[in-house]
Amino acid sequence: MKTRFVFTSLLIVLVSIAATAQEVRTLFGQGRTTGGYGALSNKVTTIGGEFANLSEIYGGVFINRRWMVGLAFAGSTNDLRVPVEFSVDPLQPMTYQYGQGGLMIERVFGSNKPVHLVVNLFSGIGFTAQYNRNDWHDYNYNYDYHSSVHDENWFYVLEPGAQLELNLFRWMRLSPGVSYRQTYQSDGLGLSDNNLSDWSYNLTVKFGGFGKRTKSSSTGNTN
Rounded to an integer, what distance in angstroms lies between the CA atom of residue 190 and that of residue 218? Predict the structure, then answer.
């Protein structure tokens, strides 16, 4: 759906950020650096009690090798079939679409260590809708997106998580992790907060400039 276009556009922006990251002085210490990285993540969770696969992309600036502040977007990719009793059209095979976008903050502990801990927090807007997946795959230039998507539902999402991060290369990291998604004020058909809130298990790959210490700070704290 349209989330694919958003993911592609954001990935281009994040790669540009990582490529142009350079050393700068910051408010948190002399001789520190600001870099940037982007992340591709795949999450498995449940939505409405059914298995759901979410693809996520996020990234931003990496401050002092401790804090990443940026944006995140995620969306469901598998066929989340809508139960007949909640379908806007019981005669058609309707599918739930789930998405979320907003602020992502990560705190990295011991960034230079080969294996270290990362905790993160997503805070933003989520949405669900129903659509006919078969019609979407038969997309053509006359396809009317707005008339084919039903029961649009918007709500707030808060998702804290943790990762065990492995430094594979200077520019690449592997970060398996877990998070808990809590939604607020969802009122989609068959999708209350209880139906949407659940644990997610993810595998994340990060690319970019993770920053290195300048000469003036070679004896400082490396966390």
Answer: 56
Give yes or no for a contact between 206 and 170, defined as CB atoms under 8 angstroms apart: no
Please tell me the distance from the alpha carbon of residue 175 to that of residue 45, in angstroms, as a whole number.
17
Tell me the pLDDT band of 136, cut-offs 50, 70 and 90: low
Instruction: List, in sequence order, every residue forming a beta bridge with 142; answer none if it has no partner.
Output: none
What SS3 state is found at 34? strand
Instruction: Return the sign of the alpha-carbon dihedral for residues 170, 174, 178, 184.
Output: positive
Q: Quick one: which of 161, 147, 156 has its CA closest to 202?
A: 161
The residue-averaged pLDDT of 1-17 equals: 46
Structural domains of the chain ordered from first start: 2-217 (2.40.160.20)
Phi, psi of 9 (to 5 degrees): -65, -45
Query: Which residues, 6 or more positions from 106, have their beta carbon under 8 angstroms from its beta carbon?
Result: 67, 68, 118, 119, 120
In percent, the amount of the chain with pLDDT more than 90 equals 69
CA–CA separation, 20 and 39 (whole Å) = 16
Reported residue count of the chain is: 223
Q: CA-CA distance, 112 to 218, in Å (whole number)?
A: 13
Whole-structure pTM over 0.70, yes or no?
yes
C-alpha count within 13 angstroms, C-beta hemisphere, residue 21: 27
CA distance 187 to 18: 39
